[in-house]
Amino acid sequence: MRLFRSEEDIDRWRTVRDLPLGGTMTPQQCWELAEAWYADKLSPDWRRKTLDDAEATLAGIGLTDPFWNLRP
Amino acid sequence: MTSDVSASTDALDRAVRLHVFGQAAETARVPQAPDVAAALGQSVTEVESSLLRLAAGRVLILAPNSTTIWAPNPFCAVPSDVRVEALGRTYWAICIWDALGIPAALHADATVRAGCGDCADELVLEVRDGALTRGEGIVHFGVPAVRWWENIGYT
Predict the structure, then answer these.
(1) Residue B92 CA: distances (Å) to CA of A29, B21, B80
(2) Which residues contact B73 (CB under 8 A, 6 or more apart)?
(3) Order of strands, edge to edge, in the sheet holding A2-4?
(4) Burial label, B63 (beta-carbon count in 10 A; 0-12, 13-18, 19+)
(5) For the whole model, what pTM was predicted?
(6) Where are the alpha helices (DSSP H) in B28-59?
(7) How far apart are CA A58 and CA A36, in angstroms?
(8) Which of A16, B14, B46, B129 has a CA between 20 and 30 Å from the CA of residue B88?
(9) Any idea what DSSP says for residue A20?
(10) From the candidates A2, A43, A47, which should be mutated to test the interface with B, based on the most B CB atoms within 10 A?
């Protein structure tokens, strides 16, 4: 996952590499994802998120497209 | 006997996890197995076994086919093109998600600088008082979520 200046930059980058368009999110969505994912990572009682938790986190920031589906 | 061994293993894994992440947070440098072993009074072999268990549990990421810690994510052991300035220190991250994960984990203000994946122009994101106050660019994930852990380095 990488940061690009614009959607045009993403298109140029992936066209050169013959890659399909993946999933995109705004920096604000990425910050909300990072907060949800890592705010407790230094806690002694930290536990890895369950699949249900992870799905709820993605859905909670508006990532509901099949690209963000975590189940095989 | 089995439960004793399991409890002992769990305690070691917890101690290793707390030391690695604590050091990464407090110093912006990631300790490796010999450092962790010395700090915890354990053998390097025991710590390496613990690191392999932690990696299998997706607690941290090792360099391929080794016990070298690459990313006690969100922190990264080696310089990358995603730099995070926080608490007067410079941290590295393997991706923009983790870069923002650093101020989230530290509960601190931060400035994230990353090169555009295409043109390499510097893009800046700022976190102040628990909010994103500056957010340039757009984040692209090339790998569908269900396949992220097939090759987390590529993801």
Answers:
(1) 21, 14, 6
(2) A38, A41, B60, B61, B94, B98, B101
(3) A2-4, B138-141, A23-25
(4) middle
(5) 0.93
(6) 33-40, 44-56
(7) 9
(8) B14
(9) -
(10) A2
* The two structure tokens encoding residue B119: 């043109």
ipTM: 0.94
- Given CB atoms, is A56 within the 8 Å cutoff of chain B? no
Alpha helices (runs of H) in chain B, residue ranges in sequence order: 2-27, 33-40, 44-56, 96-106
**Which residue from A minimizes the CA distance to B99?**
A34
Choose among A14, A27, A38: nearest Cβ to B105.
Answer: A38
* CB of B116 less than 8 A from some CB of A: yes
Rounded-to-integer distance, Cα B113 and Cα B19, Å: 27
CB contact under 8 Å between B96 and A2, yes or no, is yes
CA dihedral B13, B18, B20, B23 (to 10 degrees): -160
| Total residues found in chain A within this entry | 72
Cβ-proximal residues to A29 (8 Å cutoff; 6+ apart), any chain: A61, A62, A63, B139
Over its length of 155 residues, how does chain B's per-residue pLDDT go in tens digits?
456 767 789 999 999 999 999 999 999 999 999 999 999 999 999 999 999 999 999 999 999 999 999 999 999 999 999 999 999 999 999 999 999 999 999 999 999 999 999 999 999 999 999 999 999 999 999 888 887 777 666 66
Residues 6+ apart with CB under 8 A from A23: A63, A65, A67, A68, B140, B141, B144, B145
Q: What tokens does A66 get? A: 């099949």
**Rg over CA atoms, chain B:** 17
